[in-house]
Write a structure and sequence with these properties.
Elements lengths: L2 E6 L5 H9 L8 E8 L2 E8 L2 H10 L6 E7 L14 E2 L3 E9 L2 H10 L11 H12 L4 H11 L2 E9 L2 E10 L4 E5 L2 E5 L2 H4 L5 E4 L5 E6 L3 E6 L5 E2 L4 E2 L15 H7 L1 H10 L2 E2 L4 E2 L13 E6 L1 H18 L2 E6 H4 L11 E6 L5 H12 L3 E6 L5 H5 L2 E4 L12 H20 L5 H23 L2 H10 L4 E6 L3 H16 L2 E6 L17 E4 L6 H12 L5 E5 L11 E5 L5 H23 L17
Parallel strand pairs: 18-19, 18-20, 20-21, 21-22, 23-24, 23-25, 25-26, 26-27
Antiparallel strand pairs: 1-4, 1-10, 2-3, 2-4, 5-6, 6-7, 7-8, 8-12, 9-10, 9-11, 11-15, 12-13, 13-14, 16-17
Helix pairs in contact: 3-4, 4-5, 8-13, 8-14, 9-13, 9-16, 13-14, 14-18, 15-18, 16-18
This protein binds 5-amino-5-deoxy-1-O-phosphono-D-mannitol.
Length: 609
């Protein structure tokens, strides 16, 4: 979603703001812009489309200034046009915004009644006019911002520069993330620390309601005010981000690189939780296992939700704990019935997903213990939860989540195993066998990746399809759901997944010669049942592609192919088949020629509702 950069420096900032914005591209956007203050004027350039378009504009029409703000916009209010691109500005002030001002229409109507003319369809423009009016009335920039944000409802992170104060940059946040970067002779704002990493190692994560006033005098100074306007000290953090992760290396896309990183990220995640030698779990359980656990609730969105659906099978089968899985966007608005001893686990790659964060705050407010499983250590979710566990996937740049998903599966599986062991549902031998199975997973995933040519060929075939169905049973069902989501996200082909047993209850009506079926069918406890469902579909003429470890599996279909995968354990299959569906989605999109890493309309972290 929208990305913000701000720089206050002694050097020219225009080019560096664009550089910073390029590190926020992964979040997803459809227009971009930059504004600086120089020679007592606001200089502003904006463009539709990708950053390159903005670079081209700046090349022919450069800007100057040592303070400035930049923005990548993911359209919410108004089309992704030049007119709606940020920064929004008057003669006195320029603003970039991430989030949604929910009461903007009310504020806009009032401003229009006062005779103001709006230039854009955005919710953000009300912020600019409100600050401008306060400045016009003689308020200081700091007070103009304070007075304005008091009138705003919704979520926002804002970075603001002022024509008459070229030594000042203000940032403020409520709901959306904002990070302050600190050097002796420069100060920065960024939507995430990653964007600031090449410039500074010292950062401060602004907290809910914080406003930072950054000034250039003899020295560069900043003051942080909390929501009650009291000066506060926030902890400084030393950044330790692997900048190399920002390169695609030998891969044509970040997504492909991240798929191939999985043997390593799975091993890193596993070994952060267990001791390989003694085959024991090293981390303390985030749940109070000695208490009678009645129910675990897993809450999340998108791909992370599918990781939770998979974990439901594990918590219930392995540990005999009732597990409920919820979409955060539904959970937060349906007045859920919670017991104070419910364990609520929130799963998120980014740790910034607004619905997941809101659901966590709701649950906390009701007195329940919260655990976050996140990939970004300093994310809002990690900081808001009572306890958190990190997935060790490293920065994930491709919008379509791959390695973060499998790392989430690994963490969730270990938590289920730990609960099963503690509750003595699994005996010592079964636990040891499970450990051995998990330790084999990274190698088995790398076997899947040793020969991707079959996925490539299948991708070429599927790229011709208009609709594709996935089916699976048991833990293969969440794999099917994830396969369909990955495919539609990056290839734009309509895909849906169904529990194989549900086909006859409706979806089989969709089957025809033009709708390929992809069956997730390892030879496991559910195989015979899924095989019958595949027969039923083939009898109705669909092209059949079966992901299986049973090389002899055959059905009579006008188009049929087995995609053979390594034999593994039940838990190993969850990772192997996930990796396969990721590859199928990747190669299908590649053959369709879509933008794999930044698919249309999608954002990496969904920071607005
Ligand atoms: O960062 P989160 O895991 O909370 O994000 C949740 C979803 O927005 C995310 O998984 C989304 O579905 C991805 N585009 C999946 O590839």
């Amino acid at each position: 979603m929208c990305g913000i950069i701000g720089i206050l420096s002694n050097e020219q900032v225009g080019g560096r703001i664009i550089d910073g914005l390029s590190r926020l591209e992964y979040r997803g956007y459809d227009s971009a812009g930059v504004a600086t203050i120089d020679q007592r004027a606001i200089q502003r350039r904006r463009s539709e489309g990708k950053l390159q378009a903005l670079r081209d504009i700046l090349e022919s029409d450069p800007i100057s200034g040592t303070v400035g703000i930049g923005h990548t916009r993911w359209a919410t209010h108004g089309l992704p046009t030049h007119q709606n691109a940020h920064p929004h500005a008057t003669d006195r002030v320029a603003v970039v915004h991430n989030g949604i001002i929910e009461n903007y229409q009310l504020l806009k109507n009032a401003l229009i009644n006062q005779g103001l003319v709006f230039q854009s369809e955005t919710d953000t423009e009300v912020v600019v006019h409100l600050i401008d009016q306060a400045l016009k009335a003689g308020k200081s920039p700091e007070n103009a911002v304070r007075e304005t944000i008091e009138k705003l409802e919704g979520a926002f992170a804002l970075a603001i520069v002022f024509k008459d104060n070229p030594d000042l940059l203000i940032g403020t946040r409520r709901g959306s993330p904002l990070v302050l970067g600190i050097n002796d002779d420069e100060l920065f704002l960024g939507s995430d620390a990653w964007a600031l990493a090449p410039w500074t190692k010292k950062v401060c994560y602004l907290e809910e309601g914080d406003t930072v006033i950054m000034q250039r005098g003899a020295e560069f100074t900043y003051e942080i005010y909390d929501a009650g306007n009291q000066i506060v000290k926030r902890p400084l953090k030393e950044l330790n981000l692997a900048i190399g992760a920002a390169n695609k290396g030998k891969y044509s896309h970040f997504m492909l690189k991240e798929i191939f990183e999985q043997p390593q990220t799975l091993s890193d995640t596993l070994l952060s939780l267990v001791d390989e030698q003694s085959k024991t779990i090293q981390i303390e359980s985030p749940f109070d296992l000695s208490n009678k656990i009645l129910r675990i609730r897993l809450i999340s969105c998108g791909t992370s939700y599918y990781a939770c659906l998979m974990a439901k099978y594990w918590f219930e089968k392995m540990a005999h704990i009732l597990c409920e899985v919820d979409l955060a966007s539904e959970f937060r608005y349906r007045d859920p019935v919670l017991n104070s001893d419910d364990i609520c686990v929130f799963v998120s790659q980014s740790g910034e997903t607004i619905d997941t964060l809101a659901a966590l705050n709701l649950v906390k407010g009701m007195g329940c213990q919260t655990v976050a499983i996140v990939n970004v250590p300093e994310s809002s979710l990690a900081r808001a939860a009572h306890k958190h566990i990190l997935t060790m996937a490293g920065p994930e740049i491709g919008v379509a989540s791959t390695k973060a998903f499998t790392a989430q599966l690994m963490v969730l599986n270990i938590l289920a195993l730990q609960a099963a062991e503690f509750r003595k549902v699994m005996d010592k031998e079964a636990v040891l066998k499970h450990f051995t199975d998990l330790l084999h997973v990274p190698k088995q995933v790398s076997q899947v990746l040793q020969n991707v040519s079959e996925f490539d060929k299948l991708g070429l075939r599927l790229s011709q399809a208009r609709d594709i169905l996935f089916i699976g049973r048991g833990t293969n069902y969440p794999v099917a759901l994830e396969g369909a989501l990955k495919l539609k996200e990056i290839s734009y082909i309509h895909a849906e997944a169904h529990a194989a047993g549900e086909l006859k209850h409706g979806p089989i009506a969709l089957i025809d010669k033009l709708t390929p079926l992809i069956a997730i069918a390892p030879n496991d406890a559910w195989f015979e049942k899924t095989a019958s469902n595949i027969q039923e579909v083939s009898a109705r003429g669909a092209p059949i592609f079966v992901l299986t470890d049973d090389h002899s599996f055959k059905v009579n279909a006008h188009e049929f192919q087995n995609i053979c995968l390594p034999k593994s354990s039940s838990v190993g299959n969850c990772f192997i088949y996930t990796c396969a569906v990721q590859c199928i989605a990747y190669y299908t999109a590649l053959h369709k020629g879509t933008d794999v890493d930044q698919p249309r309309n999608l954002a990496k972290s969904v920071t607005v509702e």
